[in-house]
Amino acid sequence: MTMTANPQRPVAHAMLKPAHVSDEEWALRCDLAACYHLIDYMGWTETIFNHISARLPGPAHHYLVNPFGLLYTEVTPANLLKVDLEGNKLEPSNFDANPAGFALHSAIHGARADIHCVIHTHTTQVSAIAQKKDGFSHNDFYGAQLFGRVGYHSFEGITLFADEKARMLESLGNHHILVLRNHGIAVGEHSIAATFFLLWTVQRAAEIQCLADSMRGEDTRIPDPIRQKCADLTAMLNREDGFADKFFEGMVRKMRAERGTPW
To answer: Where do the Class II aldolase/adducin N-terminal domain residues begin and end (predicted)?
Structure first.
């Protein structure tokens, strides 16, 4: 399956589109730039660090990623970098990509045909969960939706080296959520909108678990069959483009109503 942007979604003004960029790629660039701004709007950024990548249509496994050194609010559809799986720029740019992103993002884009967008964050709450041996508890509304959907990868230091790719992929397995222990998280889905929705679910689960763990008293455990039911239903909804698109579009409208249109 090839990821395409929602053709009904408003895109950036055509005057900004370079002549050599197809309409399909431009729509994808607009969605990805909006996602970068949304991550900042939600307070999930790590200054100039971390990455969101989106695979371009076609068999070459090329993908778009942020120029290293820019804040997420400075990312635009036009300045996103087009790179190959080795991180080589495929078009001229005054910017380079952060090599820390290649080991994780290129590994997933190169191996998982069902994942066309990858978001990596390490918010305070997610990093706290990643530090705990047991990881996500699945005992709240959002955590239950992650049951059986999370892989865990042991910390090997800053993710820079190609030899870690195979081990990360083994840890990810057939899941769409990878907890990087003592570090953060990576989530991937079939579209930008679906990936953003999955990240939002993970973030909410982490926030609630952190607060619950700080309180006195025993948790009410959700039985595994109920957890599985929640996880299966949410995964099904996220596979339906209309569900994730409505969520993503609503969040973009909310952001733009408060901040204005960034491009």
So the answer is: 30-210
pTM above 0.90, yes or no: yes
Do 79 and 262 form a contact (C-beta atoms < 8 A)?
Answer: no
- Enumerate the β-bridge partners of residue 82: 64
Residue whose pair of structure tokens reads 């069959």 in the numeric block: 225
Distance CA 153, CA 40 (A): 26
**Cα 175 from Cα 152, distance rounded (Å):** 10
Length of the chain (residues)? 263
pLDDT in tens, 178-220: 999 999 999 999 999 999 999 999 999 999 999 999 999 999 9
Rounded Cα gap, residues 14 and 126, in angstroms: 38
| Distance in angstroms (rounded) separating the CA atoms of residues 246 and 182 | 33
**Two structure tokens written together for 16:** 């900004």
Chain segment 138-164, per-residue pLDDT in tens: 999 999 999 999 999 999 988 767 789
**Is 181 within 8 Å of 131 (Cβ atoms)?**
yes
- Cα separation, 122 vs 246, in Å, equals 25
